[in-house]
Amino acid sequence: MILILGSIRCASFKSNEVGDIDVQFEKARIFLDKKKYLRAQEEFNNLVIRGTHTELGDDSQFYLAESYFLNKEYLLAIAEYDRLIRRMGFSPYVEKSRWRVCQSYVKESPKYYKDQTNTQKALSKLQEFIDDYPNSEYKDEANNQISELRNKLAYKEYATGVLYIKMEEYQSAIMSFEFLIDNYYDTEVLEKGHVGIIRCYALMDEYNKAEDYYNNHLSEIFSNNLKETAQNYIKKSNSSN
């Protein structure tokens, strides 16, 4: 009889605990919907601790990460999304979490003239996402973001080459432009790299190299303005010889 009563009490306690978790989850969702992100973080964090092994375990973990993401705390969001991805691999939130990780790194990608570690991480995560979810609803956006980030990295290399030109370090400038061309051949900055090399040869009074390079890479210089700029560099070099 004592054992039966104990079992009933235990079952009743678990039932009440689950009920409390349900109520707290709804409360946390309301905070999130009302953009009270700090309050939502507190509630979801508590739920993650209490309800990990309940049906709301992955829900709580995902929305905890969301509360950081929507509050623009992207590195904290990444940590929470990653926790869900690692520990709850069969959760229906995994794809969205991986997409949010991509978005978070994109958000953390700085201006081209700063360190681009997070840009590289964003590119890596985006490519992994596309490879693992080729039919995802986010595929087109992911491809567009990859293009934008690669353009940023290409422009960083171009700016480095221009800086070397200003320092009259023309061989170093050529190396920067060649790195751009070899690694970012699919970007909008490619043709600027070619024109940068022509400019360097012209400034080095290497008229023949400048002209040969222009003729050999003309098909990769699409803009009429850039073609004209390259031609002017070559003419100026020729007139100085």
In words, what does this structure look like?
The protein is an all-alpha fold and 241 residues long. It has a domain at 18-95: Alpha Horseshoe (Serine Threonine Protein Phosphatase 5, Tetratricopeptide repeat), CATH 1.25.40.10. The chain has helices at 2-33, 37-51, 57-70, 74-87, 94-107, 117-132, 139-166, 170-183, 190-203, 207-217, 224-240. Helix 1 packs antiparallel against helix 2 (37-51), helix 2 packs antiparallel against helix 3 (57-70) and helix 8 (170-183) packs antiparallel against helix 9. The N and C termini lie far apart (109 Å).
Q: What is the fold's blueprint, element by element?
A:
Blueprint: H1 2-33, H2 37-51, H3 57-70, H4 74-87, H5 94-107, H6 117-132, H7 139-166, H8 170-183, H9 190-203, H10 207-217, H11 224-240
CA-based shape:
elongated
Low-confidence stretches: 1-16
CATH class of the domain at 18-95: Mainly Alpha
Approximately how much helix is present in the residues? over 70%
Mean pLDDT: 92
User: How would you spell out the order of helices and strands?
Assistant: HHHHHHHHHHH
* CATH homologous superfamily identity of the domain at 18-95: Tetratricopeptide repeat domain
Number of strands: 0
Number of helical elements: 11
Using only CA atoms, what is the Rg?
28 Å
Beta-strand percentage?
Answer: under 5%
CATH architecture of the domain at 18-95: Alpha Horseshoe
Summarize the main sheet: none
Global structural class: mainly alpha
* Amino- and carboxy-terminal Cα gap: 109 Å
The CATH topology of the domain at 18-95 turns out to be Serine Threonine Protein Phosphatase 5, Tetratricopeptide repeat
